[in-house]
Amino acid sequence: MRFLRQSLVIAGKDLRAELRGKETINASLSFSVVILLLFSFAFDPSAEETRAICGGLLWLVFAFAGALILNRSFSRDQPNDCLDVLISSPMPPAALFLGKVFANMVLLLTVELICLPIFGLFYNVNWTRQFGMLFLVLLLATWGLTVVGTMFSALTVNMRLRELMLPTLVYPTMIPALLGAIQLTTLLAVGEPITPDDYAWLRLLVGFDVIYTLLGLALVDTVLVG
Amino acid sequence: MREKLIYLIAVGVAILLVANLYNILLVLPDEANQGAIWRIFTFHFPSAMSAGLCSFLALIGSMMYLWRRNLWWDAFAVSATELTLAFGAIVLITGMIWARIIWGIWWAWDARLTSTLVSWLAYAAYLIFRKAIEEPTARARYSAVISILTFPGVIISWKSIEWWRTQHPGPVLTIRGGGGMAPGMQPAAYWNLLALAVFAMILLSIRLRQENSQRLIDGFRRQVHEI
Prior knowledge:
The complex is a heterodimer of chains A (226) and B (227). Chain A starts with a helix and ends with a helix. Chain A is built from eight helices and no strands. Chain A has one domain (2-224). Chain A has helices at 2-21, 23-42, 47-75, 82-88, 93-123, 131-156, 162-189, 199-224. Chain A is mainly alpha-helical. The mean pLDDT of chain A is 90. Chain B is globular, with a radius of gyration of 20 Å. By secondary structure, chain B is mainly alpha-helical. Chain B has one domain (43-164, 184-226). Chain B has helices at residues 2-27, 41-68, 71-102, 111-131, 136-163, 186-226. Chain B starts with a helix and ends with a helix. The interface between A and B is medium-sized, with 25 and 27 residues.
C-alpha cells in the first residue's frame, strides 16, 4: 500500500509539473497531428485503404508521440540534480519507476484519446462502435509501451545521444505489443467483430505487459542505483 | 594448453563439417517436393538453434554480471550477443534464399520472420548502445538490463510457429511433433547442429579472450593517463 502511495506521489508530481509547463504534452500532441496529416499523403485516404491500415497508422502516431513523452520522463528531473535527490530518497526505486510509468501512461493516453477523434474526422472512420473493447486495447498496449519505454528512458537519461538512443532501443523491444495493438485496433476501429483467432493477440498483449512490468520492477534498482 | 584444446576441437569441427557436407551434397537425394533446395535446411535450422543458444548465453552472462558484478560476465554477454547476430544473419539469409525458391518471394511478413528480424535488430541496438557509453561498469550494468529485456523476443520468435498460423513452415522435425521431413533426412540436420553449435562455442571462447584482453589494455591505458 505504502509502495503504491509513493508511486502515486511521483506520478502526481510529474503530472503537476507537466500541467504547469505543458511542454511535453503540447509538443507530442502537435507532432501527432502533423504525422496524422502526413499519412494522408503517403496513401490515398479512401475508405477501403483507410480501413485496411488504420490500426498501423494510429499506433505509429502513438509510438512517435510516446517516444517524445518518454524522452522527457527522466530528463525532466535532471536540472538541479532532482533525479539524484529522488533516487537517494527513502522511497524504493521501483516505486519511482512505477510512478513515472503511471504519469507517462496518463500523458500518452491523453494524446491517444485526443488523436482518435481527429483521426476519425480526417479519415472519415466511425471508430466509436466498439469503443469499450478499443479502450481496453488502448490501455493494455499503452501500458506495455510505457513500461518498456520508461525503463529505457531511465537507461538512456545520462547519455549524450539520448534522443536518438531511446527510439533505437524501444521500438524493436515493443514491437510484439505494437503488433498486437495494430491488429486489434484495425478490426475494432472499423467495427469488425473480434474472432477467437484474434484472442492470440490479446493474450500476447497481456503477456507482454505482465512480463515487462515484472522485469522493469525487478531491474530498475540496478539501473537507477547501481 | 587451453588454446591447443580449442584448436583441437576446431579441427574436429572442421572434419565433421566436411563429412556433413559430403553427406548432404553427395549422398542424400533431392527431396520429393522441394528438390535440391531442402539441403539449405541443414544449415538454416542449426544456425537458428545456435543463435538461440547464444542469445540464451547472453542472457545468462547478463544476469550473472548483475549478480556477481564481475566484468568477465559482461565480456561473456557481449561475445555471445555478437555470435547471436552472426548466426541470426545466417538464419535470415538462408531462409530468404529458401523462400525465394519455394514461395517465389524473398520475404513474407509473418510472425516467425518478423519476430526473428525484430530480435536481430534489438540485439544490434544492444551493440550500438554499448558504443555510446564510456564508463565500463555503467556500460556493463545498463547493457545487461537491455539484454534481459531483449530476450523475451527470442522466445516469441521460437514459439511463433505454434502461436500463429505463419507462412513459415510449422515444426518439421519429429522431435517437435512435426512430420514435414523424411526421417532419413533428419540426422543430417542434427549432425550439422552439433558442428555449428560447437563452432559457436569455439568462436565464443576466442571472442571472450579478445574482450578480456581489451579490458586489460583499457585498464592499463587509464593507469598510464593517471600517471
